[in-house]
Every structure is written in C-alpha cells, then in structure tokens.
Amino acid sequence: MRAVVVQFPGSNADFDAFHALQHVVGVPTDVVFHKSTALPEGARLVVLPGGFSYGDYLRAGAIARFAPVMAAVREFIDRGGFVLGICNGFQILTEAGLLPGALTRNAHLRFECRDVTVRVDAEGPFTQGLRGRVLRLPVAHAEGRYQADEATLAALESESRVAFRYVPEAGRVTRLPANPNGSLHDIAGIYGGPRRNVLGLMPHPERMAEALLGGDDGRLLFDAVVRAALAR
Amino acid sequence: MTDPEVTLEQALSHGLTEDEYRRATDALGRAPTWPELGVISVMWSEHCSYKSSRPHLRRLITKGPRVIQGPGENAGVVDIGDGWAAVFKMESHNHPSFIEPYQGAATGVGGILRDVFTMGARPVALMDSLRFGAPSHPRTPTLMRGVVAGIAGYGNAIGVPTVAGEVQFDPAYDGNILVNAFALGVCRADAIFYGRAAGLGNPILYVGAKTGRDGIHGATMASAEFEEGEDARRPTVQVGDPFMEKLLLEACLEVFDARVLEGVQDMGAAGLTSSTVEMAARAGNGVELWLDRVPRRAKGLSAYEILLSESQERMIMVARAGMEQRVIDICAKWDLDAVVIGRVTDTQRFVVRATAGYDPLDGGPCPDESPVVVDLPVALLTDDAPVYERPCVDDPRPRDRWEVDVASLPFDPQADLVELLSSPNVGSRGWVWRQYDHIVRDGTAVRPGAADAAVVRVICEDGHARREKLLALSTDCNGRFCELDPRAGAAMAVAEACRNLACVGAEPIGLTDCLNFGNPQRPEVMAQFRDAIDGIADACRVLGVPVVSGNVSLYNETVDGGVPRAVLPTPTIGAVGQVRQASDVVTAGFRTPGDHVYLLGHAGETALGGSEWLTLRAGRVCGTPPSIDLPFEGRLQRFLVEAARNGWIASAHDCSEGGLMVALAECCALGGVGATVRLPDGAAVTPALLFGEGPSRVVVSVTPWVRGLFEQRVADARLPCARLGAVGGATLDVQGVLALGLTEIVDARESALERVVGAD
C-alpha cells in the first residue's frame, strides 16, 4: 500500500497530508509535483491536499484542474483508485467535474477556521463502519459553502452519497452555528466516482489525526481507506 | 524624461534636513544625482537608519547562551537544541495599514515572512499585535475588518499558521493604528544564511516578482517635477501576492539546500537599494548593479524608481561564482524570474549603472555597458548616516493623571464583570482568529485563545534524524501602562509575554520587540522611548531572556486641531519559549470538577491605574499604574514551568486585562465548567481587588490528590498563594460578591467584538 499527495503550486496542506499518512498512519507516501504526467506505480490512495492551488485565482480550484497531473488522477479514478480531496482538493474535484456541485464563498464571506462536528451519513471506503458516528474535525476555508441544483442534491441524498453533514455539538455552550459556511443540506463531504471511490470534504481529517493536535477522529478516515485498499 | 536637477528644496521635499543635505554634499564633494538623492533620503530615513533610536537600542540585553544571532540581521536566531535553531522577528506595518488596511496588513505579513525565510528558515508560525482606535470611532470597523482580512488573506494562502496575537482598542490609535506582524521559523543551526554580499566578483541575482512603481515614497512623489508623467503618481501602497511568495519560499529553501549562496536578503523597505547596500555593508564590500536587467512590470521605469520601488515578493541572492545557473534552474522549476543584475566589488561603493531611456519592455536588446548613475560610498549610507541624541524631558510620566478619586466612581461587581467580559478590549478574540488558518502545517498543539500562549510542534528533519520540538509563542504590551509609566509599563510587557509562556509550561528563550512611538523630535515622546528601552532591559536582565531582533516605528502620531497626538507608547514584545515535552503543556481553562483553585501571587488589591475598569469608568487612561517586582516575577515564572513539568497544576491563566474576576471567568469559559470561590478573608470588596490589573498573579487549578504536594512546593518557592475555592457546577460563584452562569459568561465574551464589527 502506497499513498500519493499531489503538490500543486500554492498547495499548503500537502505537508499536513504527508505527515498524517507517512508518520501518523504509517503509510509510505510520495509527494508528486503538478507537472508530473503519471502517478507512481503501486499507488492506492491519491490525496489532493488543501491550500490555494495557483493562488486560487479566478476561482478556488479552477486552474488546478488543468494541471498535467490531473489527467493521471482522472484515469486513476476511472480504474477505481481511492481519491481524497480535502478542502482545496474538494474544490479541485468539483471544478474538474469529478464530483458534482460547487463550493462557493462562505455565507458570512469570511475565512473560517475552527473545529466543527460532522456526522457520518454514508458508508464508503473512507467511512466503513462509521455511519452515524459524530466526529470532531477542523475546517479552514473561505469557500466551503456546498451548493448544487435540486436534482443533484436529491440524487446525492437518494444514493446516500452525503458522506458528512455538519451537526451541532452536544453539550457545548457556544454562539457559533453548527454549519460554518451555509452549505446546503449541511453538507460537509460527498462521495463520487464509479465505485464511490472518490471522497471530497471541506473539514481536514489530516489535521486531527493525533492527540497532540486536539483529537484523532480524522485518523478514522485514513484507517478505513487503508483497510479498504488492503481488502481489494 | 530627464531627471530633475537636485537642489536643497528637492532634498527637503525628500525629507532630508538642510544639515543632512549639507552632510551629503560635503561627503561627496558635489551635489548628488537625482537617483543618488533618492538613495540617500531612504537610507537616511528614520525607518532605515534608526537615527533617533540607535543610541538607546544599545542598552538592550541582546546576548545569552542560546543566542546565535542577535539584532542587526534580517531576524534573530536562538538555539533550540539538537543542532536546530528558531529564527524570529516582529515588524510594524502601521502607516500602510491605515491607508489601505487589507494590503497594508497583508504585505506586513509577507515582509516579515521573507525576513525569516531569508535566514534559511522554514516559517512555522505567525502572530499579530494589533491596535485600533475607539470601538465607536467611525473608521475602526472598516480598519479592523480590512486588517484582519489582509493578515488572513496572506498568511492563510502561503500556509503559515497564525497562532497567537493581541488586539486592543484605544482612542489614542484613532488616527494611527498599529499592525505589528511576527514570524517564527526553524532551520539547522549550521545552515543559517546571512545578508552579506561576500566574495569579490560573485554574481548578484534578482529573484521573484517583477518591479513596478508600488511603494515608492509618497513624500518624494509630491515633488512638482513628476507632474508630467501620470503613471508616476500611482498610489504608493504595496500590493501583496501570497501565491508568488509561496513559490518564492519554496524556491529559496531549495536554493539554500543546494549550498550555492554566499548571502541572501529580501527586498523590503527601500527595496533594491536598502537590500544591496546593507549586504555590502555587512560584508565590508561594494556592489555594482545593472538596472537595465531588472525584471519589470511597469513601462518607462527610471533608475530612481527601480532603486526605490517596494514591489513585494523579491529577493537578492549573492551566489558563489559559477553557481548562478543552479539558482536560475531551481527558480525556473517554480516559474520564477532569476536574473544576474550585478556583482560584488571591493570598492566599498554602491555603484549603479543604467541606460537612460532603455526599457526591456520595449523589446530591444539589453545594452552591454551602461553609464553610472549612482556612485556613493557604502559607509555614507550606513555607518556614517546621521545619528541623533534627541532631547528628552526628564520624566515623561503624566503624574497629574495618576490622581483619581476611585471611591466616587460607580461600582457594581456583577454588572461590571459582565461589562468587562463583553468589552472589545477583554472579550473573546474568536472573530479574529477564526479568520486565520491557525492549524495549517499540522503543528498547532495549543490554539489561539485556549491558553496564555500558543504552542506549536515543529518537525525538525534532515537526512539523519527526525525530531519534534515544541515552541511557545506570545505577544504582549499594555500601552496604557506604558503611557502612565513607560519604564514600568515596558518591563511589564516583557514580564507578561514571558509569564504567558510560563503558563503553558514553556521556558522563554528569546524576545523580539516592535517599538511603536510618536514623533521622536518631541522631547516627551523621546523620553517615553528612552524609558521604555530601560524597562525592557530591566526585565530582560532579571528574567534572563535576551532581545534578538526588533523594529522601531516612530512618527505614529496625528495632528489634531494643531495639537500633536501620539499613539500610546506601545513597545510590543513577541516572546518565544520552548516546552520540553508534550506532557508538560498546560492550558488556561479549568478542567475537572473538584480541582482546587488557587491564586499564585499577591491576593489583595492592586493598583487600578490604566486598567480596563478604570478606563471605562473614568473615560480616559488615568490612575496610579501598577508596578512590578521583577525578581518576584522571575520566581513565579520559574515555579510555573516547574509545576507544569511535574504535573502539579491542571491549568494556569494569568490575571491581565480585567484583573482577577475576568481571569476566573475566562478559566470557566475556556473549560466549559463553573467554579465556586471565596475572596481572601476580611478583604473589602473593591474595584482594586476584583478588577485591578497588577502583574505577577496567576490563577491555577490543582487536582485534589496533588494538593498537598503543590502547597509544599509553593511554600518552598516562597510564593504567596491563596486557595480560592474549587472547580464545579455551571456558574462562577464568587461567594457574597457575584454569581454568573456559564452561558452568560460565554455570551458576554463572544459578543465583545460584535460591538465593533457587527453580528453576522
């Protein structure tokens, strides 16, 4: 089992994803530059990391979808490979048409960085056995408001592809809303791809994968996908 | 377009005095050329020359066993063990942020990051110390939104977490806000890069963004000779591009790894001029620059403009001869310009060549030879620049404002606590730090707001080993104390910044300072500056922590109806500490019902002068300010670190703005749990007891089974310590005085900044 973290110019959570995979979960991980046209042999998981690819100029993720490496990612998805788009990675996947919908400016128009609680609402390779669990994960984005037309939302719901939904945290005194960005249907992450092998989410599981950083709920996603990869 | 003739009037409009202009012409034996006048005026400006502050800065404590590099380089460097070093500095971007808050603050962050990665360090954390005018001032909301968004826009994009900081409001900043940005990086202690133009004949490379007209001094733009060219009047605020800086950062770190450089420096204030002159001065060499080769994005740039442009995201590198292509190749990987624009000479002169009328954007071939337009001794611009011993008043303390009849002011413990908790100066800063990505790079172990200092885990990895270091960061300054007593106020700023570190279990290892004052030509202001330096030095000496880098920002004042109004003297302190291991880390919130609550330090009344309570009640900064017993402070801080390391305390939070009651309420809010406490027996319930902001006091909680050991250790350390009560319930119950529910506390704190920037 090997993992890949794609590095676009302007990626900045490539380090975070690499650290979580290589040093916390223990998966040998390669960093692949955006100018590459192929993924390393034996890669089972590709992470499109957070950050501001190409400065997020034009629109978040809009330029990254043209990067040379994206053709290889598309082919990898078609073959059923596991792809995880975190934050800017999720934005890139929607811009590339690899996941439906769009991520627009947060409703309050500010960047928002804080912990949120999300409920796992769908089974899949990253959430096997976790359905119904409430996880504490951090968000850090300015464009995370998930939007899609009614038909797309209905399809996501009926096909059970809403992987994560923002939910209030039980027992905490706060004035902050559970949904940090105004996403429709409180959507925090969705599944896609031919075999539900693509997950895009705005929260950062790689930044909450060890107790030192305030919790390790994020690790559950990586452990699940490693199990799924080994089971194949 | 030909250069204007240089006259005394031109020199005066460049901000030089008549004496300074004469000093320049005497040294040269002739009048300077137009570009030379620009160069001299920026190099002799207060900002570059430190001509008013230099004589005083010498009194700072800058040496210590861990210090690898003190002030004078791009940033200070401190040993953090195992062959690794912490690199840090703080710098002001006050004036640009007041004119254009978003870009001013953004480029402040960009500039301080370059100062740190120029030294070879990977930036790992940012902090910001901000001062705005009165919350009710009409410009305050716009300025605050813009500054915070600008810091976020730059720091978030480049991917360096903003983990700590402070925000204060006072009418003294109505016309002159403060934006002080701090950056911390780490590097191998044997791979530090310096801003030195070393090695005769070595090539000088220009790397990064292209040069435009942004940032050329507004004062010089006002000269009549520029009127004909409209472009030349473009506004002078720099514009930041964090994406470009991210590429520059990665390219620079790769170039450093290749070991092909002799020196490197970022182009900050005064751009190409200041960077190359300083590099030449540090190496005792000269430089020759060929401006025809400088990459540019504006047409028709003159030599004067290229030399003074403050376009962002640009670096100067001095490569080893023959290695320039390696630099160019690495930069090409990151799609960056890298061009040889000069060479190191042994003339000890700053020589600039440029062809009048030549513009590479016109497409013609670059001339092989071009005429000399600047030829100045490097020393004239650096060591021999003017230095002033400015006159000072004897005592700048406003003693008439120390006398206040506190007994006549209304006082209601419960209502006053709610008012303080919801004051913009005291309440939650969440609205600010939620806009900063404070967790990127997977290292933030203690986040903003959770404790008195942030803690960042830094992974130090080279070919041989991988180690984790824990660094703590805090920034502090109470300008009101500094106004009432500059020396004690500055000492208390150092003490509190270091106390904040001690409260998370970190030992302070070094400081940086950002000294924001008014017009140094006014003897009252200069005396404030002089005394603040002495206060910082007092505290550094006793607490055993050196100042390794810093910045001076003077002329922070506005003229209001003919009366000069300076900002509160604000010597901001950025402190860096080291935590031995993760299990040592202590945070501020109460943790477990049943834990005992203690106040370490003096438990009685403290002076109310400069406190938030008195300022709210009296409507101005007044009263007798607190003083500090520095040796006592040192003992307290050493005890806190010891207590954290040995597990004697479950939480620690110092009493600062709002005093003891606010500290207790914050411990409850952060822990999500109440507490029942009793004030010391026989103490009269007064504002000074509840809300006095005297230093050297820390609220700690202690697990019941450690209680005996804790009390013994406190006694051994000869520290006063009062048991106040216990953690538990959902109310802060100060028996017989006030009782406030958790929800009320959280509501008050979280609504504090809504008064300034509005609710969503």
What does this structure look like?
The complex is a heterodimer of chains A (232) and B (760). With 232 residues, chain A is of the alpha/beta class. Chain A contains 5 helices and 11 strands. In chain A, the strands form 2 sheets. Chain A has a 9-stranded mixed β-sheet, with helices on both faces. Chain A has a two-stranded antiparallel sheet with strand order 5-8. In chain A, strand 10 (187-192) and strand 11 (198-201) form a beta hairpin. In chain A, 56% of the residues are buried. Chain B is an alpha+beta fold and 760 residues long. Chain B has 26 helices and 28 strands. In chain B, helix 7 (101-117) runs parallel beside helix 10 (242-257), helix 10 (242-257) packs across helix 13 and helix 18 runs parallel beside helix 19. Chain B starts with 7 loop residues before the first helix and ends with a helix. The chains are: A alpha/beta (232), B alpha+beta (760).
* Quantity of strands of chain B, as a count: 28
- The stretches of 5 or more residues of chain B where confidence is low (pLDDT under 50) are 218-234
Oligomerization state of this entry?
heterodimer
Global shape of chain B: globular
Low-confidence stretches of chain A: none
Mean pLDDT of chain A: 96
What string gives the helices and strands of chain A in order? EHEEHEHEEEEHEEEH
Number of strands of chain A: 11
Instruction: Tell me the helix content of chain A.
Output: 10-25%
Percentage of residues in DSSP E strands of chain B:
15-25%
Spatial order of the strands forming the largest sheet of chain B = 8-10-7-11-9-12-13
Largest interface, C-beta closer than 8 angstroms, per-chain residues: A-B, 36 and 41 residues
End-to-end separation of chain B in angstroms reads 53 Å
Described by strand count, sense and barrel closure, the largest sheet of chain B is: 7 strands, mixed
Shape of chain A: globular
End-to-end separation of chain A: 11 Å
